[in-house]
Amino acid sequence: MLNDNSSKNIAEGIIEQISDADNFNWRFHDERYSAKNKQEINFRYKCSQRSDCAKKLWKCFNPEKQCDTLPMKRFDCHGEINIVIDLEMKITSVNVIHKILHELPKEIGVPNCVKDFISENIDLLPKEIYARLVENGLDPEIC
């Protein structure tokens, strides 16, 4: 019989395949057992750009700690994937809801040379790491 951990792995594998197909980012939201059937687990994922998933912004009054990065564009897309895994029957059902096919999230990555530099200088304060990255001409593209 499958256990909870392998159920989570199955759900993650399904999400990975859906993400590869639609290029949207899906974030784990919650996991629940069915009240009717204890052998059923429901995994819920939400579109990373859903407007109701945005974190509340807070203002930092220290200008040194402020950054100029723009928040991710949000949409009222109701994007949600429900994956129900029946452990006893060994079947899975997948329901995808995405009411608006909005623009895809902008890919933001950190170059490997920057990651390596940070790993090699992990004992420094973040402010010092950033200053040295700038000194060495490595564009960290972070604030």
TrEMBL record:
It comes from the Eukaryota. This is Uncharacterized protein.
